Amino acid sequence: MRPFFALLKMLFKQALRLGPAGSGGGSRRTALVLLALATAGSPLVLGLYAVFNQVYTLLAPAGEQAAVLTMAVVGGQSIVLLFGLYYLLSAFYYAGDLPLLLPLPLRPRDIVGAKLALVLAGEYLTVSALVVPIFLVYGVRGAGGWWYWPLALAVFLVLPVLPLAVSAVIIFPLMRFTAGSKNRELFRVVGSLLAVAVYLAVRFSVLSPREAPGRVGPWLRIGHTLSGLSWAAFLPQAWAADALAATAPVRALAYFLLFAAVSVFLLVLALVLAGKWFFRGAAGGYGAGLGRGGREKILGRGVFGSRSPLAALVFKETRVFFRTPVFVMNGLISTFIFPVMYFIGSRNRGWGYAGPGAWFTTVLVAAGVIVFAAGFGPVSATAVSREGKMLWVSKHLPLSGREQMTAKLVLALLFPLAAAVVVALALVLAAGAPVRDAFQALLLGLAGAWPAAQAGLIIDLLHPNLDWSDPQRAIKGFNGLLALVATVVLLGAAAAGAGLLAVLGVGAVGLLAFLFLFFLLSGLVLFHALGRPAERRYPVLEA
Amino acid sequence: MIGFDRVTKSYDGGVRAVDELTLTIHPGEIFGFLGPNGAGKTTTIKMLVGLLRPDGGRITVSGVETLQDPLAAKRKIGYVPDQPEVYEKLTGLEYLNFIADVFLVGADARARAITRCLDQFELTDAAGDRIQSYSHGMRQKLLLTAALLHDPEVLVLDEPMVGLDPRSSHLLKEIMREHCGRGGTLFFSTHVLEVAEKLCDRVAIINRGRLIACGTMEELRADGRSLETIFLELTEK
Ligand SMILES: Nc1ncnc2c1ncn2[C@@H]1O[C@H](COP(=O)(O)OP(=O)(O)O)[C@@H](O)[C@H]1O
Ligand SMILES: [Mg+2]
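# adenosine-5'-diphosphate complex -> structure
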């Protein structure tokens, strides 16, 4: 067992090492990270607490308050499933540490187990943002018996196990069966995204009832009625919620044990599958790319096109980004998680699009979703870090720092642009909003995405993480978090300004115009602010 | 022409990696930059090509001061680093086209240069493959091809022979001679004395950041001793 724990410790250290390597200052840095996490996360957690407290109040008169528990369990497990695919891919396939681990005297079981433990820890962190506030609401409002608190903790601990096992059952065969193919990186990204799409489709089309809305609004109903559905794979979710809601301790314990037993069984199954398929799926060299086709084919006509230097930079950035699976996964997930949730919410009505009377709120919420797609900074706040040891290439080119940053900004803005399209489509197609509203949201959102992306770029330029050989290290770190904080500050300032104007009696149209101009102005200011580090900081960066 | 004028650099305020280096390399000469490991060769070269900023002193490339007009200086230089780190996700050909675009090499000129170099280095078959499938030597040859694309006045190579097979190494020496034959300037670092002895018109020896000898082979070997003997003597503690 000793080697297993040594490996586990090493993996955790590796995972917790945020930001530039060797920048020292252990405890102070940790405090900073926690502070940033709290700043970025607390509005979310507090907001969710407030929302579900309200929901509880709505449900209690009908005696349906236990529905919040179903929402927590179902929502939490959905999040785990989605992130599980990404975490598993990262830990098992993109980490690239197998060549280092395989020669060590470790059993395959140790390697797989330690990596799974790492993924599970990440899942607890991710899922706690949603589940903890809801469990707290239910406990604080006093609906459960004396056994509620220990049981809630136990359910929380078991909660991610089952969906993680399901993710593993998707990922390991996918990796195994694409291992021999030439374009396997493409297949794998597409395959896992497809799995997510299929999951979402099943989850929200087949399982969501579209019949008459009840007292509590249809989107709350999805979670609740699910407990009545007997779709085998999701039964355990109902057991977990039933355990927490049970009025007698024996009943609660029985449901929980059922839930735990199924989870553990699936986990064991996942471990067996992983042990069987992981090493074969990960083995093998690199994809050969275009392949060989004789001299004529390789150096044939049309191969030597020429572009302007800036266009060449943009193409290079884009190619490197989209051909590095972990960049793509990270970029797509961070960018689209909210837009897709928004789409689904719009589809189920009552969430995104509040009807023609509320066009103002609709535009604001939709625009906010677009700004946050840029705010997570998966592309902007990693733009310089992603260069890593290849920084010398960019630096030895006869191009100014400003040109380099412009190319990076173009790529970074591509993502909120795509997010904006998803949000606009959600408004028009799923919620039936007028095209004009969708267009306003799109414009406002993109105006806000511009300063947000530039803030991420500046942050990464000031403290890039260039010392990596595993591309995951380039994107995992402090800078994305800081970019999120910057976006929260930007939106906070915008909201404060708009609030002030509203108090002064400015109407909805005026407020939207103010926000639009405020975003454009911040964009311009940050565009100029970017020039200084681009010309001063970029030239002295060392890989 | 390359000129170093009292160039100094220290890392993180520590000891000076390069200390008041003054040196002139003339067009048409093959100039070898010798020194033991950690002497400051790579640091000097990184300052020359614009990867590091000197703490003090001036560097000129064909009359252009690198700190005054870095972009103009960079346009005159072709550079190959000691570690061939390069975008693994691009194909060799994509990388070469990227470099050609940035250095404003026209379509015809690049087609000719790329085709010739790839053939010479026997890289044509692999040109369409992702660079991640290349060996160390192949990456080096790719970077060498990239450095030659814009027909630079000044060629700067950091430990260029390390990792090359005998045929490629021979070819590289030919290319170096050719470059200087056309009036180009060539500055390369090495710790392999045999290479320097056979190839160089002039050499400089650097130790712990300080220039300790500079001259033609004949000047350095005035009393008939081998370069090795001189090197060992000069770089002793
Ligand atoms: N990034 C760095 N940070 C700190 N010290 C460095 C760094 N790079 C090189 N050095 C130090 O500078 C000195 C010169 O190194 P270098 O120029 O790489 O020597 P050479 O290329 O001649 O072997 C060495 O003492 C080395 O330890
Ligand atoms: Mg060196």
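# post-check
Confidence is low (pLDDT under 50) at residues 19-25, 206-234, 284-291, 349-353 of chain A.
Residues A 542; B 11, 17, 35, 37-43 surround adenosine-5'-diphosphate (ligand 1) (CB under 6 Å).
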